[in-house]
Amino acid sequence: MFSEPATNIARLGLTDGMKVVDVGAGSGYYSVEAAKVVGRNGRVYAIDVQKNILDRIRNNGISLGLRNIEVVWGNVEKIGGSKLREGIADRIIASNILFQIDKMDDFVLEMKRLLKQGGKLLLIDWSELSPIGPKNFVPSAEAEALFEKGGFTLETSFNAGDHHYGLIFVK
User: E strand or H helix at 169, and its extent?
Assistant: First the structure.
């Protein structure tokens, strides 16, 4: 089984009215699934560095009747680069992004800046066991150490499909 956004998001404990940040939103699958759960009282901020991807996410959300997705052109490898205010997020989703990050420590600090105290971060990334993953994957143990060094606490780890691992951290 490939990684399934709805199944992975269910582990995050989203509820109506929450604010969720989807960093490196890419295809927007996680943004759409989160928007369905948090409802019209909630908000999903889909952040990416590629403007054309953001247009696609916005249009897809609108076509599905989801008016609670806000797209943000930003750089999450820079502290403050997401352009969102500090402590805005109840939850953060970071899926298939670590292998693309050059400034890991700054990325973790930006996640910490965005997340409310007690908030949770869902990290889904490529497993070292996947034959189809990128060459520059970040093993789960390395990701765990990186986030713990940045002040997060690991809540749980899980298999997020045949090619991915999942980690949930608490601030």
Answer: strand 164-170
